[in-house]
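Example 4.3 (complexes with small molecules)
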Amino acid sequence: MSPETSSFDWNDLTFAAYSDDLTDDQRWSTWDATERLNRGPEPWPDWLVTSSAAVDTDLGVLKSGKEADVFLLERAVPDDPGQSCLLAAKRYRGTDHRLFHRDTGYTEGRQIRSTVATRAMADRKSTFGKAMRAGLWVNAEWSHLKRLHVAGVPVPYPVQVEGNEILMEFISDGDSGAPRLHQLRPLRSELESLYGQLVDAMRTMAGLGFVHGDLSPYNILVADASTPEPRLVIIDVPQLVDLASNPNAVDFLHRDCTNMANWFTAKGRPVDAGGLLADLLGHAW
Ligand SMILES: Nc1ncnc2c1ncn2[C@@H]1O[C@H](COP(=O)(O)OP(=O)(O)OP(=O)(O)O)[C@@H](O)[C@H]1O
Ligand SMILES: [Mg+2]
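Answer. The structure with magnesium ion bound is encoded below.
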């Protein structure tokens, strides 16, 4: 048989040859296939692996939340120890039976133009409606992470978004995941530094016209917690509230301040929630 008449498909061969190498919990890095707009802000950090030869390996669930599961992922070029990074993959559950508890209150003032989508989302039993709501939260968290990162608020670097999955910087403490603030018993000097970092971050957010809306010691990670310079990192930002358009925004900000003031006060660094709220409102716009 001459090569011209051959039904042999070189693409198939190539795929088979490679796919044999991938195990069930691996895939080719999704970086190349992701549109530019769905990748994180440039400059891309030095640690980020962008090679098309990289493979993503699922290393397991970090935590299952109410609306999403967070997985640990390694993105690495096989046989090249210099090209390897860990990422957190937050995957929203689109068609889960549970309703999105954050739908109420937070989304007031947000515009959804399509009436078909609005009606579908209002129908809490519709699968399409649930998928739509999940999609809105994924896109909201992605764009908020980018805005906050660019403005200098300490959030995980947003790597890329694809479907229901957001990939972001994995926040660590040495070789393991960073603890959440509520798990820590900081020394007095560490408390002072962490409080300073918190106020800076909240002031920057207020300056952007944003309220976190679900801020608590559970949605704050402490990177390098076991070193002399722990760094506070704010996570879980899909529900960010706009101070200008959401009529509940100041109430949400008050609740955020109260959650944080209670924790710092209980740990021995008294904070007055009302005073913090007034300070932040003074920084708004
Ligand atoms: N970038 C990250 N680096 C390290 N760990 C992370 C990262 N993002 C999330 N986690 C881990 O996953 C947990 C859940 O993340 P997140 O709060 O964003 O999701 P969630 O679904 O809203 O969870 P919940 O319903 O518990 O609030 C965090 O408390 C943290 O332990
Ligand atoms: Mg959370």
